[in-house]
Design a protein that fits this description.
Blueprint (H helix, E strand, L loop, with lengths): L8 H10 L2 E6 L6 E6 L1 E4 L5 E9 L3 H8 L2 E13 L1 H4 L7 E16 L3 H13 L13 H6 L3 E16 L6 H10 L4 H9 L4
Antiparallel strand pairs: 1-2, 1-5, 3-4, 4-7, 5-6, 6-7
Length: 198
Amino acid sequence: MALFDQFGNDDVRALVEQYPLAWVCAGSGAAMDASLLPLIGVFDGEGRLVELIGHLMRSNPLHASLAKDSAATILFRGPDAYVSPEHAGRRDWAPTWNYAQVQIGAEIIFDDALTEYALTQLIDAMESGRAQPWSIDELGPRYESMKPHIIGFRARVKSLSGKFKLGQDERPDTLHTILDALPGGSMAAWMRRFNAGR
């Protein structure tokens, strides 16, 4: 297995939870439909991602495509950053781009009965930690008029691959120079995650 293809269930979970907006794609070539949709992961007892919960507008062309053929590709993009030789402190070093991504092959199952649950799960996840978390009940009667235009779905995971290119191939001294030079934030945190103990 290639160096950047090595990751664990906890890495997938962290990426899905920190970067929930994913491309959901159906079809291929000129017939491909795709939309960015926020998704909530469901994990089994061993921490494996087994499905994703989401929703979309019924008028979205992706709904019609996936109703005909339930096979989908879901693409999560995590942190990314351009890394300059200036960050590495070396003029004999080539610039690169660090990133994390997960690609999922899934079967999409639409379910009217799942719509309210999908909306509530997403809102609860996004509002968690706020001083005054918002609740769907605050929409009042407007919510009932919106619901018929939305449908919930489960995306059952059939395959999963990922690439976490986060400096694992750098010499320790170069890695630490890059980490010291990068602005604080998610890229440095993810690089530390994949280079613990180096």
